[in-house]
Amino acid sequence: MLMKAESSSGQAQLKRGNRMALIRQLRVQPGQSRVDLAHALGLTKSTVSALARELIDEGWLVERDVIVTGDIGRRPTPLFVDPTRLLLLGTQVGIGVVRVVLTSLTGEVLQAQSASYDTSLDVQACIQELTHTMLDVAAECGEAQRIIGIGVGLPGGVDQAGDQLVFAPHVHWHQAPFGALLREALQGTPLSGVPVFMQNDADVAALGETEFNPGPSADPLLLVLVGEGVGAGLVVGGRLLTGARGLAGEVGHMVLQIDGPLCSCGRRGCAEALIGNRALMQQDGDAPDLAKAGQYLGVLLQNLAVAYDPACIVLGGPAVALGDALLGPVRATLQQYAQAARLPEPTLRVARFGADAIAVGAAALAGYRLTQPTLA
User: Fold this and answer.
1) What are phi and psi of 227, to 5 degrees?
2) DSSP-derived secondary structure for 264-291
3) In principle, which of 96, 192, 338, 376 could form an S-S bond with 345, CB 3.0–4.6 Å?
4) What are the tens digits of pLDDT across the range 290-302?
5) β-strand pairing of 146-154 with 221-226
């Protein structure tokens, strides 16, 4: 009996893996036929047809008009990820503000809402406001729609194995069981039981660029988020690099200037102290030196490019709204270093989802976790 149970469990796991592989293949290359999918995934056409039938019935996939090929016989029917029935909820926990978006499985933002909370209170005060906002946004779902996953982008390191926010310096939260507290707050609501996934804000923003990008994704992709703090998310081979304790990407505390300005972490000369929001705001009546901040940001990106050799660097966060006053010196600095080393200049672009990069990225995190069988 035990051997049969193990066999049954293995078959169920294999089937789930094939189902999710089919979905992820169509996210990368939408419009493939069942025959195309069978060739791409190394499955039989009958297996793909059976899985596709299930996934269409459940709301994951949809068939579109047939492709006119000119060949005699039955034309192949293209399949796509269905953007209308199964939805994702993405939430950004910022400094004093929460942002919630409702998206399709392919990243279209259907609803969005923000709310403020008092940073002087504990984490539960934030979760209470976040829960209210999530329920308000979720109430906009149509009768035929269903939220299947919730993603949360947090302003600090996240230990996924321990389901904890390790440290969020700007709101002074330490070892907070954020996931458990949020699930508890959602008990007895329409979102009760919906899977909740959480990760650092820069990490989820990076996933948003790879999971919800209609074009071919750059690999590796490095996203640097510049706001109150400075963080980075790195996606390699479709996977996040999060580190042993969930603290990978805390690049805001890389030292760029010896004996520089004091940082929130207690050290001097960190990237955050030189290019974070406080450095970019007017101080003592003087206008901020955006050119200098842009140079420091360029130095940071140069160091990260040397460390990770990314195919593309993406800039996100509120600082991007400063435009060429900041980004011009960034590009000039990168170009200067590249020319000196006789190497190609790193590809640099702005985050696709702008101010919603974290919230939409959090929705992408939920989709990513739900469709990666080895991560679920």
Assistant:
1) -145, -130
2) TTS-BSBHHHHHSHHHHS-BTTBPP-HH
3) 338
4) 999 999 999 999 9
5) unpaired
